[in-house]
Amino acid sequence: MKETISRRKIILQEAAHLFREKSYPGATLRELARRAGIQGGSIYHHFASKQEILFELMDHTMSDMIERLSDQLADIDSPLEKLRTTVHFHIEYHVTGPDQTYITDEELRNLEPENYLKVVAKRDCYQQIIEEVLRAGKAEQDWQLDEPKLYTRALIKMCAGVSTWFKPEGALSIKQIADSYAALLCNGLLPR
Amino acid sequence: MKETISRRKIILQEAAHLFREKSYPGATLRELARRAGIQGGSIYHHFASKQEILFELMDHTMSDMIERLSDQLADIDSPLEKLRTTVHFHIEYHVTGPDQTYITDEELRNLEPENYLKVVAKRDCYQQIIEEVLRAGKAEQDWQLDEPKLYTRALIKMCAGVSTWFKPEGALSIKQIADSYAALLCNGLLPR
DNA sequence: GTCTATAAGCGGATAGAC
DNA sequence: GTCTATCCGCTTATAGAC
Fold it and tell me: Superfamily assignment of A50-189 in CATH?
């Protein structure tokens, strides 16, 4: 059982942290190299450019989110349970990897056109999965929503936001927060 | 009735736009000067540094938000009406000045320590106003919320998020979107 | 796979003319 | 109040040794 995290992975992890701290243009490859334990020039053995690091980070995160959420929803039938699962997943994923998710949510503007299109396509795919949950609830359980897309965005923003202020030492656990947010949405959607 | 927008104001407006487009470290003063219709060096007649531009932008936006929201809430008694007003205000303010609000929400990390403290203090003050609305609803109308701060953050994030995707040519008006979000929150908070 | 050295250009900021 | 010219440090990226 050796620790075999490749240098490449280390660079990606440190890049996520550094980009979040200073934003993509504000982060320098020298500082990234320093944190990854190598010299500036050595970065280019692993990546062709700074842009490639950003893209790989965002693209991988989006793919991972799509795969995991799809998996979790696959076994569930009830729309209500799907909504709860979605809320929990989105919050937990963001809090668990706050650097990766923050970059993926906020650095679209720094992607070159070609990369931008690829990541946006995956982001739309992820949103579509959530929108489908809301549409199913509307069809099967008369949830009160005219525009599923509207509430999809509300859900995504409020849940992603948790990772910007959550502190493990705080009074509430992730599960409690997610329960609370899921309750707000479920209660808000159900007809009276 | 002459157009008397000072050059200083123009620089601030263009800076908000440019910082949003490229992020603070990614924006250059030469480009900012170009958009403001002057040469690079001339910026320094109006501001002492790039940082001062960022700070002035954020500090002014926060003060303005606090003042306007306080004013709007002052005349209202009903917690439910206060909540609706808050949702409408927060969304409209963000959609009306998407550059200023985006910078104010996202560029805290690029403020120097002294400036950071000042802006965070005002941000906390603004959040406190909203939290107070939720607390009043809980006390007077038995709203279902254990932690007002939790839902304050949810409200802020979901409403601020509107400005990241809203298009005036879209199917829904700002008022319709705000109504929809207010309904979700009100319905979600009321006991069954 | 990592190092060192360096190219080539851009960044914020300043000085002084008009 | 704006311009031009310039300082100088830092940036991404490359080249070639080990």
Answer: Tetracycline Repressor, domain 2 (1.10.357.10)
Per residue in A11-26, pLDDT (tens digit) is: 999 999 999 999 999 9
Collect all residues with Cβ–Cβ distance below 8 Å to A163 and sequence separation of at least 6.
A91, A94, A95, A98, A101, A102
Tell me the nearest-neighbour CA distance from A26 into chain B, angstroms. Answer: 5
Contact A7, B7 (CB under 8 A): no
What is the average pLDDT score of chain B? 97
pLDDT digits (tens, 9 = 90+) for A40-62: 999 999 999 999 999 999 999 99
Superfamily per CATH, domain B1-47: Homeodomain-like (1.10.10.60)
- Does the beta-carbon distance from B150 to A181 stay under 8 Å? yes
Q: Give the residue from A145, A147, A156, A157 with the most B CB atoms within 10 Å of its CB, the best one to mutate.
A: A157
Provide the token pair at A139.
């069809």
Q: Is the CB of A17 under 7 A from strand D?
A: no
Q: What's the token pair of residue A38? A: 């190598």
Separation in Å, CA of A173 to nearest CA in chain B = 12
Torsion sign over Cα A69, A153, B134, A186:
negative
Q: Is the CB of A173 under 7 A from strand D?
A: no
